[in-house]
Amino acid sequence: MAIAISATWTAHPGKEGVVRDALAKLVPATRAEPWLGNPLEDRPGATTAR
User: Range with the lowest mean pLDDT among 16-20, 28-32, 39-43?
Assistant: First the structure.
């Protein structure tokens, strides 16, 4: 099962760096989540629907 998430971040003029810095911190942390890959199989107590 694939999951796609899309987000649009809007910055005030001159504040683009704030958004860039926030994303630079979020991306590695999100990718490090242990359930990323197949959230239905990797989370404790989760079951795979068939």
Answer: 39-43
Contact 13, 6 (CB under 8 A): no
> What is the number of alpha carbons within 13 Å of residue 20 lying toward its C-beta?
4
41's CB contacts (< 8 A; 6+ apart) are 48
- Cα–Cα distance for residue pair 31/33, rounded to 1 Å: 6
Residue-by-residue DSSP string for 11-48: --TT-HHHHHHHHHHHHHHHHT-TTTT-HHHHSTT---
For the entire predicted model, the pTM comes to 0.48
